[in-house]
Amino acid sequence: MTSSETISSTSIGLALATSLLMAACGGGGGGSSGDTVTPAPPPTATDQLLSTTVAGYPHAVNVYRTAGAQRAIVLLHGGGGDLNAVAYQVGLNASATGTTPATINWAWLDANKVVLVVPQGQHIVTNPGATTWSNYAMTSGQDDKGFLQALAAKIRNEYGLADVTLMGHSMGGAMTNRMWCESPATFNRYVSLAGPASATFGQPGTPCAPGVAAPPYMGIIGDSDSVMQTAGAWESMTWNVSPTLVRSSIEAWVNPVVLGEFHQQQARVNQACGESLDASGFTTAGNVDTWTSCSGRMVLRRVRGADHGVASLDAQMGTASALDVMDAVMRFAMAH
Question: Where in this chain does the record put each AB hydrolase-1 domain (predicted)?
Answer without folding.
Answer: 73-298
